[in-house]
Design a protein that fits this description.
Shape: globular
Order of helices and strands: HEHHEHEHEHHHHHHHEHHHEHEEEEHH
Distance between the termini: 27 Å
Structural class: alpha/beta
Largest sheet: 7 strands, mixed
Bound molecules: guanosine-5'-triphosphate, magnesium ion
Strand order of the largest sheet: 2-3-4-1-5-6-7
Number of helices: 18
Low-confidence stretches: 1-8
Mean pLDDT: 90
């Protein structure tokens, strides 16, 4: 009782959710955020840090014993070692507790000594949030939706051919179920690699320990009869099992306890992939943000113990652009967010859009070109290890110039090409007290945590 009381009243806990679709930059974000909270020399935008009120920061054992620990030390060693490289892909939820000793400001400061604020960071795939939509859909509705999307995508060709050769009314043969589930999964993975965002059910991309289990061995089928013992009847049953045994427990055990949320978005990657990927990203973002208005879903509103107070919507990898283009990237994020916000009531949550780089891998450079100055970024190319300076293309000042053709179903950008280079992390020489270099990570932290550290 005593320790529970002191935790609630004197040692506030902030649960910060970090999500984004696969490869959005979650692992790099958390690693750099934690490193920059431990060594705060590059965090002038976080007031509690720049004013010196954060007296100490240290990692502690996390409160949840059954959730894997976020492997901070390994990821940091990858990014800042002598041969820096990007961390491996992570495939499940993980958690880390960072505790901060903070001197309160204002009235309380004279009266009380420093207090401890615990920051529990929870990393989970954005695909899992998209699964929320399944809870409102029957198997037939979900199938119709998923097949309509697949028909417009070249990546689904083989799966659709398999489907055409299958009769859902026939008696279930496990080998048929497995073959269909396999070709459906292959389609989802290929679509994801080619830049599409909405590739649900989320666990099909990230199966973890569920790989090969019946809850992941189903696929959409066109509407029809589902006699007892038939393939269609069993597919529908497994779909329901996926909802009850995979989707709901995630929302109950992890999502319902989050206070603050950052949604990371690889907007540049989608722009590079083309208008269809941008439109798909827009819809996926609306889906992800839909999870933050619990009113719309009765299951969710029943389990949400607290509400998410702040949501940061951040375009990652902004170090691919010269800073003169950052406001344009932010404007694109704002337009995507506005679109989702118009339809969602976030129940009082404060939202903000930003362009950030959790780990800055480039330096800026300006060179004359055709009688004009060209703004470039320079870095080490991941593929060759060679240094290169590079101009990614001009983002439009008006985000509508990207979002409107995307919405109208354009196949390619009319008047521009957007390149994305993959850079390796730069070799770093960090001074004592300095975390890894970043762009606006301090502003992101101020928005997400500043009020709790005041
Ligand atoms: N230049 C640059 N590249 C970044 C940055 N953050 C992430 N990246 C790139 O994006 C890739 C994915 O980053 P991760 O942090 O592993 O992304 P993730 O969301 O954890 O990915 P999964 O674990 O696969 O879901 C990295 O391998 C880098 O190539 C950044 O701040 N700057
Ligand atoms: Mg990761």
């Amino acid at each position: 009782m005593g320790s529970a009381l002191s935790e609630t009243f004197f040692e506030p806990v902030i649960r910060l959710g970090v999500t984004g679709l696969s490869r959005a930059g979650k692992t790099v974000f958390i690693t750099s955020l934690v490193a920059n909270l431990l060594d705060r020399g590059r965090m002038p935008g976080l007031q509690a840090a720049s004013s010196g009120r954060i007296q100490a920061a240290f990692l502690q054992p996390q409160p949840d014993d059954t959730v894997p620990r976020f492997d901070f030390e390994t990821h940091l060693a990858a990014l800042t070692g002598t041969a820096p490289h990007w961390p491996d892909s992570t495939r499940a939820v993980s958690e880390l507790r960072l505790s901060l000793r903070v001197q309160p400001k204002g009235l309380l400061s004279g009266l009380s000594g420093p207090r401890t604020v615990h920051l529990d960071i929870v990393d989970y795939p954005g695909e899992w949030l998209l699964d929320l939509a399944l809870l409102d859909q029957t198997y037939d509705e979900w199938s119709a939706d998923t097949l309509a999307r697949a028909e417009a995508r070249a990546q689904a060709k083989a799966f659709l051919a398999d489907l055409a050769a299958t009769n859902g009314n026939e008696k279930l043969a496990e080998s048929t179920a497995q073959r269909l589930a396999h070709s459906f999964t292959t389609y989802l993975n290929t679509a994801r690699e080619d830049g599409f965002s909405d590739c649900t059910p989320g666990r099909f991309l990230l199966p973890g320990e569920l790989e090969g289990s019946p809850v992941l061995t189903f696929a959409p089928l066109p509407m029809g009869d589902a006699p007892r013992g038939s393939l269609r009847r069993e597919m529908a049953r497994r779909y329901e099992a996926y909802k009850a045994q995979v989707v709901k427990p995630f929302f109950r055990n992890h999502f319902a306890r989050i206070d603050r949320q950052v949604v990371l978005v690889d907007a540049l990657g989608a722009i590079h992939s083309g208008p269809q990927a941008v439109e798909d990203l827009r819809r996926a973002m609306a889906g992800i943000l839909g999870a933050f208005r619990p009113g719309r879903n009765s299951f969710l509103s029943a389990i949400m113990g607290r509400r998410v107070e702040k949501i940061l919507f951040a375009a990652t990898k902004a170090d691919h652009l010269h800073h003169t283009q950052h406001p344009r990237l932010t404007a694109i994020m704002e337009a995507l967010l506005r679109d989702a916000r118009d339809r969602a009531d976030f129940a009082g949550a404060t939202t903000q859009a930003m362009a950030i780089a959790a780990l800055r891998a480039t330096v800026e450079e300006t060179r004359p070109h055709d009688g004009k100055d060209l703004d470039l970024v320079r870095g080490t190319l991941l593929a060759t290890g060679k240094q290169a300076a590079f101009h990614p293309g001009e983002l439009p000042e008006d985000p509508g110039h990207l979002l409107a053709p995307a919405r109208k179903g354009a196949e390619a950008w009319l008047d521009a090409d957007y390149e994305v280079m993959r850079f390796a992390p730069a070799q770093l020489i960090l001074k004592p007290g300095e975390g890894p270099p970043h762009i606006r990570l301090d502003r992101a932290a101020e928005f997400l945590l500043g009020d709790k550290l005041a």
